[in-house]
Every structure is written in structure tokens, then in C-alpha cells.
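User: I'm putting together notes for a lab meeting next week and I want to include a structural view of one of the chains we've been expressing. I don't have a solved structure, so I'd like a prediction I can at least talk through. The sequence is below, exactly as it appears in our construct file.
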Amino acid sequence: MTGSGERNRTMGILTGIAIILVVLGHLDMSELSVFGLFPYYSFHVCVFIFVSGYFYSPEHEEHVLSYIAHKALRLLVPYYICNLIYGIISTILSQRGFTYCNPMSLWRLFIEPFLGGHQFGLNFAAWFVPALFVVELINILGRRFLNLIRLTDDNLSRFHINRDLCLFMITLAAGIATVYLAQGGHVWGMYKTPGRILFMLPVYELGVLYRSRLEEYESRIPDGWCIAGVCLIQLIVYTVASGLLNFSVVWCTSFASYAWVPYATSITGIWLWLRISRMIADTAPGHALDRVGAGSYHIMMHHIAIFWIINLIMSGLSRVLPHMTTFDTSAFHNDINYVYLPGDMYPWKCVYLAAAILLPVFIHELIAKRTGH
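Assistant: Thanks for the context. Below is the predicted structure for the 373-residue chain, given as C-alpha cells.
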């Protein structure tokens, strides 16, 4: 939403594209990676962080407690409701041989979401929600602290910077240091939780900075020149990094190149799809992608479970249809990422993709219609 309460269609479309990329990544489908130049795991999680930062407003600093309460109500309450439901389901499935499902406990219900977020298997993709809440909490408390020590825009103007740029630079330095330490094997165990947050913070601050200072200049660049420039920059980064661009935000691992590369690819990936989102914002496809973006919370929360349900249906059909006997029951019970393709036909992944996106969007719109939001 914009400050006036109107929906920002460009950001809605960008969010919709990002959640589609997440689902594609979990299905190991690379169709939107631009010939491998923009691999999903080099930026897609960062899109959500960037968009969240984009919608931050300095006005929130006048009502910190109400802001925190609002974020908890919007992010954590539905998360914990779903976590309880998946905890019950996981407990049942763990007794039926599904090794990626764990029995419910108070620790897994309330604490583990902030540590790993993979406590019940079928909702592991929702690890992002508690992490985002922590990032937003640190952001507003950090800004309040800067106010207390009088690091305001007026006081920083003598250095030709503003508070948003100052915070981005500070968090970026901390984020690059975190990547460097992770590459050396020093971000492990309990350190992965703060490592994850430190990595995410500069991307959030970039979203804030983009809206306050950069958007008016970036939007003036012609579309063709912008996309060509971003692709050229990415090609240079890709070459320097020997194509090793993918990384894991959740575990703060798999940083295979220079410590700055994950932030470079996050910026280029966000920039590419942001410009594409702006280009299609007023087209018919833009309305559909905006609806997907509006339902992104539900897609993130439920798409792995939808994959599982489709596998369950496939498992039943494999017992009565001779041409589906290749269904791997062992993989179904032991691999959360297992996807069954009858006849080993790749297009069957589209069934998983469509269901994982359309069903949660339907749920979101049904809830929105009944609640009036």
C-alpha cells in the first residue's frame, strides 16, 4: 500500500513475481532465470525484504509500540495459527513414517520458528515470516536510537549523506562481514540466526533508501537502457563469480564467491524484476500478478503442503493405474522436495506449480471477501 492507502501495483506485481520464483525454485524449474544469468537463489528472498523496506515510513517512529504490535498481529499471529495446525498434522505424519515431519512440542511451536523455521516440514518455506518480523523490529529500534543520539538528516547533511543512506552503509558493512565469516565456517549452530538477520538488514534498508532517495532517479532511466544495463552488470558479476551466484539466506550458507557478490546479485535481481513489474503494471497480466502478490503470504505458507497433497493423490493413483507404478514411496516419506512426474514427463511440474499458486490465492481472496479487507 502507498501512504495514501492506494495499492502500489508495481510492488504488488514484484511480490507476485518473487513468490512465483520461490515456488519455481522449490520445483527446480529454471524457466525464469534468464538463461541462468539470474538464478532464483541469488536474489528471490531478498525481493520480499526489499519490498517490506520500501513500505516503511518514518512516521512509525512516533508510535513504536503500536507499530510493533501491528507487525506482530499481521505477521506472527497468522503464522502461529498455521504453525499450530501444521504441528498437529506433522505429529500425525511423523507416526506414519514421514521423516521430515516432527512431533509437536512447545519449543517447536514457539521458539524454533525464530531459529530455523523448519520445525514441521510442510510449512518450512514460512521461516521467512518470523525473520522478517525481527528485521523490522531491529530497523525501527535502530532508527529510534539514531534519533536519541541526534544522528538525524539535518546533522548528517554536513557529510552529504542522510539517515537512510547511513543505515544502509552500516548494515551493508555488517552484512558483508557476515558473509565473509560464513565463508570461513564461523556462522554455524546458534550463530546462524543472527547471521541470517544481519544478512537481511541491508536489503531492508535498501528498500527504505530506494523509496526515499533513489526511486525518483531510477524511474527516469528508459526501460530498454535499464534492462540492458542491469543484464550487463549481472553478466560481469556472473563472470567474476564464475557463475557461483546461489546462496541460502535461511541457513546463511553457500556463499561461494566474493563476500560482496550476494548483495550485488540481490540488487541486480531486484532491479531487473522491479523494472519489468513497472512495465506491466498497467497491463492485463499485471492485474493477475498483483493478485498473486496479494496472496503471497498464503502461497509462502502453504505451497509445500500443496506439493505434499498432490503427491498423496499420486500415491493413491499409483496403486490402481499401471502407468504410474514408478511413484517412489520411499522418497515420498523421506524427501520433502520429492515431486512425482508420471512417465518422467517434465510438464507435470506445471500441475504442482499451478496448484501451489492458485489455491492459496483463492484462500486469500475468500478470507479477504469475508473479512472485508
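A couple of points you could mention at the meeting. The chain has two domains: 9-284, 292-371. The two ends are 13 Å apart (CA to CA).

User: Perfect, that's what I needed.
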